[in-house]
């Protein structure tokens, strides 16, 4: 697990290298706040420019075994 202070684009490869895993990112599944969406829209910039490439997200990124996802999602009430 690590924070995304440098942004998903920079930090995901670091986590994958350390955990010796691979990943597929579905851009539409990356959480985006209403505020960020409004900011991007005000400049007519695709929100992915900020959600994927931006930093200082104050979010955590982690790897888990695939079969643990539903349990963790339920336990921590994540909203995906």
C-alpha end-to-end distance: 18 Å
- Structural class, by secondary structure, is mainly alpha
> What's the rounded overall pLDDT mean?
88
Q: What characteristic shape results from the CA principal axes?
A: globular
Enumerate the spans where pLDDT stays under 50 for 5 or more consecutive residues. Answer: none
Radius of gyration: 14 Å
Strand order of the largest sheet: 1-2
- Helix and strand sequence: EHHHEH
Largest sheet: 2 strands, antiparallel
Using DSSP, what is the number of strands?
2
Beta-strand residue fraction: 5-15%
Helix content: 40-55%
Tally of individual helices: 4
Please explain how this structure is put together.
The radius of gyration is 14 Å and the shape is globular. The mean pLDDT is 88. It is built from four helices and two strands; from the N terminus they run βαααβα. It has a two-stranded antiparallel ribbon with strand order 1-2. With 80 residues, the protein is mainly alpha-helical. The relative contact order is 0.24.
